[in-house]
Amino acid sequence: MTEWLRVLTFGAASCVCLARAAVLPFGIVNAVVSQTEDGAKPATGYEFRPGETVFLAFQIAGVKPSSQNKIKLKYQVMALDPYGVTIVPALSGTVDTDVAPEDKDWMPKVSKIAEIPPLGPSGRYKFALSVTDEANGKTDIKEVEFPVRGRMVEPSVALALRNFTFFRSEEDRAPLSIAAYRQGDAVWARFDITGYKIGDGNKFDVDFQVSVTGPSGNLLYTQPEPTPEQRAPFYPQRYVPAEFSLSLSKDVSLGEYGLAITVRDNAGAQKIEARHPFRVE
Questions:
Q1: Under 8 Å between Cβ of 167 and 175
Q2: What CA–CA distance (Å, rounded) separates 271 from 196?
Q3: Is residue 153 part of a domain?
């Protein structure tokens, strides 16, 4: 006999089915975090990545049917980051089904799918599981950890620009050790914005604007409009990755140029400016 119950929530999905097992005390058993549906536990040393989908499966042992041969369970699954912050809405559900006498030793199975936040930090994440057998009042809880390797962006109590780097092209992953370009090149740069105010509903509102001064200090370019980033994600976004490019003309003067980036936190009434030189040789 197989019964299915599917529940959908923002950022997560789950299902419940029944699988045969030996009689065991009531509790959560066979909990596995994997890379695929019904997959095996990853190899030792494997680390999940931000944005990756994580599959959780566990079974509930020792469930005793009522005198009417019914099973009624409540469960809740919470996915938490290393600091105990929920990464997707909690998934609550029930298993409410009839069982035949010959199926009295079958175990419900719960599966859950969750996505690690694309900008989630490194550390040990976990699923916090809770199951209650409403027929006899028994409850069991369990935590299942899984490691995640994310980017390191140093936090700040005030608005800050971190990890500024120049690049040769949009596709390059390795930054330039010396910020030097030739006439006609494109100047690419990346950085992170952090330390901005996160309001109700995890809402934030930041923007940045770029300007360039020439070798003699004269203003050559100002970005006409700031580049905005306004969001209210379920999981609090602690930093904003940003990038921009500038095209150098083929007859641009040789020498050192000044790049100024003005960053504004519109919700927190903060403003900073960072300057980074580059050369045209």
A1: yes
A2: 10
A3: no
Q: Indicate whether 154 belongs to any domain.
A: no
- Tell whether 207 and 119 lie within a shared domain: no
| Domain final residue, candidates 148, 180, 208 | 148
Mean pLDDT, the chain, as a whole number?
91
Q: Which residue, 186, 196, 149, is CA-closest to 166?
A: 186
Together in a domain, 89 and 62: yes
139 and 177 together in one domain: no
Average pLDDT over residues 7-21: 45
Stretch 86-111: mean pLDDT, rounded?
Answer: 88
pLDDT in tens, 107-159: 899 999 999 999 999 999 999 999 999 888 899 999 999 999 999 899 999 99
Tell me how far CA of residue 39 lies from CA of 34, 57, 149, 189, in angstroms: 5, 9, 20, 40
Measured in whole angstroms, how far is the alpha carbon of residue 236 from the centre of its chain? 9
Q: How far is CA 89 from CA 20, 56, 122, 213, in A?
A: 30, 15, 20, 47
Domains identified in the chain, total number: 2
Considering the domain boundaries, does residue 64 fall inside one?
Answer: yes
What are the residues whose beta carbons fall under 8 Å from the beta carbon of 259, sequence distance 6 or more?
A: 187, 189, 210, 211, 212, 275, 276, 277, 278
- Joined together, the tokens standing for residue 253 give 């003067």
Domain interval for residue 222: 160-280
Residue 29 CB neighbours (<10 A): 16
Over the Cα atoms of the chain, what is R_g? Answer: 26
For 10, 127, 196, the CA distances from 58, given in Å and listed in that order, are 21, 11, 39
pLDDT at 17: 54
Pairwise pLDDT comparison (98 vs 53), residue with the higher score: 53
Query: Cα separation of 27 and 130, whole Å?
Result: 9
The amino acid occupying position 183 is Q
93 alpha carbon, distance to own chain's centre: 24
Residue 26 and residue 28: Cα distance in Å, rounded? 7
